[in-house]
Structure formats: structure tokens, C-alpha cells
Input
Amino acid sequence: MTALLEARHVTKAYGAGLVGHDGIVALQDFSLALEVERPRIIAIVGESGSGKTTLARLLLGLVAPSTGQVMYHGQDLHRLSAEQRRDFRRDIQAIFQDPYGVYNPFYRVDHVLTTPVRKFRLAKTRSEAHGLIEDALRAVGLRPEEILGRYPHQLSGGQRQRVMVARALLLRPHLIVADEPVSMVDASLRATILGSLRQLNRERGISIIYITHDLATAYQVADSIIVLYRSVLVEAGDVELVVKAPRHPYTQQLIASVPQVSTKRTWLDEQPGGQRTAETAGGCKFVSRCPIALPKCSEVAPQPRPTEPGREVACHVAAPV
Amino acid sequence: MNQPVLRVEGLRVAYDHPLGLVRAVDDVSFSLTPHERFGLAGESGSGKSTMALAILRMIRPPGHIDGGEVWLEDTRLLSLSDDAMRRLRLAGIALVPQGSMNALNPVLRIRAQIADALDDHGTSLPKRDFEKRVRELLHDVGLPPEVADMYPHELSGGMKQRACIAIAICLRPKVIIADEPTSALDVVVQRQVMATLARVQQELGAAVVLIGHDMGLMAQFVDRLGVMYAGRLVEIAPIGQIITAPRHPYTQMLIASLPSLESKGTMQGIPGLAPLLRELPSGCAFHPRCPRAVARCSAERPELRDIAAGAQAACHLA
Output
């Protein structure tokens, strides 16, 4: 059984190849496999510069890995035949952060929905096309009569983002890669948009890769979670395990940093130690901010190792050999 | 009882629009005591950022303040001359803006930007004193002295926001208005920046108005919270009360919409959309989205009234 989409030891460096320059490594030795039969929601969590957007772009085939491969049904993304490429573009859909930038302000909103229907010949007649579009809009909780015929500026950010989810849905994909889909919408609307993603997963068997910097929404939406820190995986596993009992010191720090609606006001008290400093060659990426680092940590980079069923951690202290 | 340092009374802001007047802030009143941290929360378009600009008299046409008064101690801000108001900004009330990346001048070193702020307010210092002051300010916000020689693009997001805080406190203001100061930052950095803001505020004895929509941040940072909806304050109470017993259905839903790290499946969106300010619903502006609305809610607008000690809500049912 080949995976729907698989990343095998993928590394992406930007700017490499210039004289005397190794480039900036955006993502390092990353592997992940998704099967059609087991639709899941995977959250990829990390701060700016962790490599999460690079990962999204690699999985969508928008950039090529420096080393390693991304495979669609066992075939390297950059060696797909024209027909396979067409299937890939239909099967894997993307939702991006900015619900403003993806629309052409001169076209009605309908344009982003009719274009895929036309290009992929999803409908034989106009009325069939219209039916498909209306169904997709309703599936994400929008009323077609309030959306169709309008211009992008007449919709709210949340509506625009849900239209993008509807657009992805039109193509009946197996996977949606959503890169920060709610970071630009209001808190009150986040829940609704993420709720629609979850519903698509449950009811239509669509896998979702949810890329975010927001640990709390990741916890609410995802089945499993991958935490990235400066281009490497630090902890991955079942969302309940990772969020409730984080093992990697970075994951612990990340979780402690989320301000909670609580009358316990300890958030401003204990401060995480250590400032981010310049890259150390070789060792663990987190060593300069790590409260429990050993001498070994600045010399040898830890590899992800299973600590228990459903979790792996890359840390010499939390997951020793 | 402490004398209030900042008092906003019945403040109103309107924007001229081809289809009529749009009321962005309607009859908002609150006051801050020295040292107090006050939060203003609400969705986009609720008028919270307009409030920040109105307090600083920085509303630009087609917007204008068309009612109410803002007092900084004994000074009425709305009747000051433009020049006096300009001098009072930063010195009396300072703003820590939302996008620190856009607030700093990209072609000036941080030192020059601090010098600008001091010079503009007639507090230029001799060179040696100035250098000392710059070092102190950077130290106060947890930045190394080398930052003075750097340009904004050489700083990370968190460092830029700290540099903005350093400029904001350089004239020892009595009130600091922070408009979503950490919305562009990662959580770990957000926590460090907010801790910095809390510390400098305590050292200065300044009051802080924190504007934002993250109820988690409000819960952890402010002493008292005002919740805005469609340009009006709908609830104002000590933060502990708001969290444990929110009175206004909108506040309740705002809290429920926040994803928790403690239990799954608790996040609920607020149905519907914030109303357009130029076509506000009759009665209570929230009634079309309110699960508990009764007939009275669409007919009569609820006024803000006392419901407990120090707590007010504008809801017929509270």
C-alpha cells in the first residue's frame, strides 16, 4: 500500500550553492506519511522560522526539496506525468493564510469557485456546476445567496476564508494543506472555520495538515501534532500526549507560554530562560534556550526517538538512547 | 480611593460616509487609576482601536470626535490646542502600536529614533547624558546596549516591539496605551514582551490600556476589562469576575470562543457576524446573534448599569 502523500527525509535549504555559502536550512530531514484509508488531522506547530511554511510548500510541490523526496502515490512529485500532476492538483488542496490576497478584487467571488469547476470539468451543465458550488458553500456553513454575486471586499475575512475552504472542497480532495488558515480572522470566527475543517475530516474522510503557530487551536482540531523548532522536529505524537504531558523542553515552554483564561495569574511570573542566540554548529537547535541542557547537547544533534507508543521526541535528556 | 489618572467620559467618534454618519465609538466612559491595567476587548470593528486613537486625538478625517471628554488628571484633552496635544502625546500618554515593524523608521538607527522622541518634546540631553539614558531605556526593556546602533531590520519582531516600548516610556508617561502589542509575535516572545511591559509599567507607576481580542492575554494581564461591541461598552468589570461570571452573553461567547489547552471540544464560535456600523440593529446591537434575546432586546437599547460592586453590564437580562 503506497501512501497518498509521503515526505521522505526531506531537507530544504535556501540560498545554498553560492560560493562558500551553505544556505539557510529551512527544514531538515523531515519524514511524514499519510494514507488515504486513515484520514487524520495533523497539526504542524512552530514559531516563525521553524520551517512550517516551507513544509507546506514542499508538500504542495511548490518548491523542490534540496535532498529527500516528496511522493504522491509512490511517485516523486517532481517526476509526475501530466496526467498524474493533474490528479495531484485535484487531490491535494491548499488553503493559505491571507484570505485577502487570494482574490482578484475585480472579479466576483464566484470566480474562485467556477474556475476549478471549469478547469477540472466537474460539471456538465451550468446548473450542475451551480449545484456543486452551492453544496460546497453550505458544507462550510455559508449561505450561497449571501456569497455568490458579491465582490471580495463585500465579504468579511471569515467569509472569504470559508469560501476558500469551500473551493478546496469542490474538488473532493483526499488532503487539504491549510497553512495558518485562521491567523488573520477574529477569535470568534476561528472556531467556526476550524469546526468546518474538522467536519470535513469526520464526514468526508479528508485528511488535513493544519499548519499553525497556535498550540491551542492545534490541540482542539488535530488528532496528532508535530512540533518543529528551527527546521527540526522536536516532538511528535498523539495530541493528548504531547499537549497534556509534553516531554521536550521546547514543547513545555511553548505550552506554558499560552495565556489561559483562568483566574490563576502565573503567566507573567516564571519566565522561560535563555534568549535565542546564533546557530550552534552540530548540536541541538534548542540548546541555547534549554534549561536542562547537558554538555553533549551542544555537540551532537538528538534524533527523534520513540518514548512510548504514539510519541517521539528528539532530546538527549527527555528521550535518551 | 485613588484619583483617576485617565478619565474617558461619554466619548463618541463618528466617520463621515456617503451613506450617512457611521458611529465607531458611542458614548464610552471609563477611568483608570495610576498603576492600573485596563483591557479593552472586542472583535474587529468593535471600536477598540478607534478608542485608542481617540484618546490620543489621532482620529483622522473623515473621522472625528463628536462628543464626550478625555481627562488626563486635570487636563481636558479635547480642548487642548493641537500643539499642546502633540507635546502631551508620548510625554503624558504614550502608544505602543500594533505593528512594531511599521512603527519604527526603517532608515534610522534605534538611537536616532529615541533622540527624535526626546528632541521633539524639548527634552534634548547633552551627549553623555543622552547615551546614558539610551542605555537605561534599552536595559529597562531587556535589550542589550548594542541595539542602539542597529536598524529595525536587524532586530527580531520581539526586539522591535521592545524598542517601541523603550520609545514609549522615554518621557515617563502616566498612561501607556498598547494596541494589540503582541499580535504579530510568537507565544514565547509574546510572554516575554508582556512581562517587559508589566515591569516597566510598575517601575514608572503608569497605567496601561491594553487593547486586544485575546481573552487569555487579558485574563493574565489586566486588572479590569471593558468589552466592546459595535462601538459601545457592553460590560466592564474586574477581570476575575469577567472570567468566573461574565454577565453579558457576548462576553460569555467571547470567552467560549477561545480554544482551551485543558479540554477538547470546548471551542465555540459566535454565530453570525459583527454588524455593520452604518446599519446597526435596533435595540441591543447584539440581539441578532444572541441566543438569549427576548422581544425587549430588539426594541429597547440596554444601557450600561451597575450589576455588582465595580461591575457594569448593558444587557436587559443581566
Notes: Chain B has a mean pLDDT of 90. Chain B touches chain A through 44 residues (CB under 8 Å). Residues 141 and 162 of chain B are 6 Å apart (CA to CA).
